[in-house]
Amino acid sequence: MAEDFDQQFDRLSRRVERAMVLLIFVCAALLIAGELLLAVDPLRVFLLETERLEGVSHIP
Hints:
Layout: H1 2-38, H2 41-47, H3 49-54
């Protein structure tokens, strides 16, 4: 009985661990993609409200 519980717990913990690692990679990829989008001037103006409200480009 205890052996069955241990096997079930091992399977569950492996699945949870894989899901957590996958979630970390997805979040890191989304963060990098967001930063890359903000590096493009036309997209940054479209995505950020402060760029529109300031009215002055940060590039002279």
